[in-house]
């Protein structure tokens, strides 16, 4: 279809407007007037339509020129769909089967037609409901390792990687949201902040701590300046869809080059917030499911490190840590790899603490806490989360591995 000037779709116009997209007709059915269209976007930013027909179902995701959560007072460029599209194709290449298959991209309309994941449900919903996902830790830990490794100069040819950094550096507005919402707004009285009543003493304690703020700003500096690898950029439990036995990653519009520990750190934070919120969702007996969440954290890190080590041995084809400096001279590069994994983990721990703060203090809270109606209980659980986040930021070195992190979660619980 010829792309006309951008115009948002709606459930009534979608059939007529996308009838000419050949792959959509093939996936859904040739007669667009027979398509049933629903809008299901539950996110903060975009339109998401499910298009169902006699042959099958597909998803159409379209960017809006403003932040959906806030309204048209906060404009946001449509070009983020371009970056989301390129992120999805890279993730599919680096970890086949990890993301929905892209069928079609229309840059002018800022829309992506993709595979409909079914019967997948957003992982955050499953965690609020106390449902387990077999193989989750391995699937996502492997995804993080493959995308981190294969998107870096451990694997990529240096010039190709630099060119890709150039391409993604055009996605300026979206990282700017992370820079303020995640790293800065939680620590001062920013306009769009909100918090559960009763948290004021904890918030005061965080904001009066200059060392804490300095450490967070150092992490921001690394997030903004370091181009180790291509990140997903928004890898929380709302960006994973799962069945009881399968998990997939969606929604990489926050893609940017950054530190290798960023995605896994953000993800673990969201698992920890699921953990801390459980007493409100599981009634008298949260312990068993909380145990599963902590096992999932440990398993994710173990899978990340195992896959990273495997790729280190089999795919270290980039300019970094070349064999001519190690194996060819008769010594192992394993100590160098272990030191790198320690640095990645240390970044992940600090990012984890920061994400635990921002989800309770700035814009875009998570449903795990937000759906707790008893605000006194919510404040009590969020306070545990905030205080553990502080510990992770200020005393990162006391958490040398995932075991230490889950032990700390049990103490704060
Ligand atoms: P946003 O960028 O606005 O957060 P998402 O990509 O996260 O948008 O999609 C919003 C919601 O749409 C998801 O939470 C999920 O429920 C649904 N969704 C998105 N992509 C798919 C897909 N490929 N298959 C099924 N449902 C999807
Ligand atoms: Mg989303
Ligand atoms: Mg969202
Ligand atoms: Mg999104």
Quick structural gist:
The chain has 15 helices and 12 strands. The protein has 413 residues and is α+β, with helices and mostly antiparallel strands. A hairpin with a 3-residue loop joins strand 4 (66-67) and strand 5 (71-75).
Walkthrough of the structure:
The protein has 413 residues and is α+β, with helices and mostly antiparallel strands. The chain folds into 2 domains: 14-115, 2-Layer Sandwich (Phosphorylase Kinase, domain 1); 121-412, Aminoglycoside 3'-phosphotransferase, Chain: A, domain 2. Helices cover 49% and strands 12% of the residues. It contains 15 helices and 12 strands. The chain has helices spanning 14-18, 22-28, 80-94, 123-129, 136-150, 158-168, 173-181, 200-207, 210-225, 262-281, 287-314, 334-361, 367-370, 375-394, 402-412; strands spanning 36-39, 46-52, 57-63, 66-67, 71-75, 102-106, 111-115, 121-122, 229-231, 240-242, 247-249, 256-258. The strands form 4 sheets. It has a 5-stranded antiparallel sheet with strand order 1-2-3-7-6, sandwiched between helices. Strands 8-10-11 form a 3-stranded antiparallel sheet. β2 and β3 form a beta hairpin. α10 (262-281) crosses α12 and α10 (262-281) packs antiparallel against α14 (375-394). The longest helix is centred in the last third of the chain and has 28 residues, at 287-314. It starts with 13 loop residues before the first helix and ends with a helix. The mean pLDDT is 96. The chain binds adenosine-5'-diphosphate and magnesium ion (3 copies). The site of one magnesium ion has 5 residues, from loops.
């Amino acid at each position: 279809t010829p792309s006309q000037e951008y115009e948002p779709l709606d459930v009534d116009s979608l059939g007529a407007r996308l009838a000419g997209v050949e792959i959509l007709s093939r996936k859904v059915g040739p007669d667009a007037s027979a398509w049933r269209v629903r809008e299901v976007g539950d996110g903060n930013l975009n339109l998401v339509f499910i298009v169902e027909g006699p042959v099958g179902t597909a998803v159409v995701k379209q960017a809006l020129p403003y932040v959906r959560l806030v309204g048209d007072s906060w404009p946001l460029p449509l070009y983020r769909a371009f970056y989301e599209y390129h992120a999805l194709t890279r993730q599919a290449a680096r970890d086949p089967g990890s993301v929905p298959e892209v069928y079609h991209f229309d840059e002018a309309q800022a829309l992506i037609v993709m595979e409909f994941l079914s019967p997948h449900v957003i992982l955050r919903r499953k965690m609020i409901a106390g449902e387990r996902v077999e193989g989750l830790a391995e699937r996502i830990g492997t995804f993080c390792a493959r995308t981190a490794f294969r998107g870096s100069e451990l694997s990529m040819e240096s010039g190709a990687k630099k060119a890709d950094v150039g391409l993604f550096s055009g996605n300026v507005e979206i990282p700017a949201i992370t820079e303020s919402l995640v790293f800065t707004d939680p620590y001062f009285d920013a306009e769009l902040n909100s918090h559960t009543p009763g948290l004021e003493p904890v918030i005061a304690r965080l904001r009066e701590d200059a060392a804490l703020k300095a450490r967070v700003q150092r992490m921001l500096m690394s997030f903004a300046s370091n181009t180790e690898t291509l990140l997903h950029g928004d890898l929380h439990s709302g960006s994973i869809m799962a069945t009881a036995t399968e998990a997939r990653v969606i929604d990489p519009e926050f893609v940017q080059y950054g530190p290798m520990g960023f995605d896994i750190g953000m993800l673990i934070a969201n698992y920890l917030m699921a953990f801390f919120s459980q007493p409100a969702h599981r009634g008298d007996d949260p312990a068993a499911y909380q145990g599963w969440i902590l096992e999932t954290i440990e398993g994710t890190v173990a899978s990340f490190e195992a896959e990273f080590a495997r790729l280190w041995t089999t795919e270290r084809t980039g300019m970094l840590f070349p064999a001519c400096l190690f194996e060819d001279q008769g010594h192992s590069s394993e100590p160098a790899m272990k030191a790198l994994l320690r640095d990645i983990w240390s970044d992940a721990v600090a990012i984890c603490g920061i994400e635990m703060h921002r989800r309770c203090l700035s814009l875009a809270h998570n449903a795990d806490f937000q759906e707790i109606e008893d605000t006194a209980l919510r404040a009590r659980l969020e306070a545990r989360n905030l205080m553990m986040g502080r510990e992770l930021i200020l005393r990162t070195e006391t958490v040398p591995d995932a075991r230490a992190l889950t032990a700390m979660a049990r103490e704060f619980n």
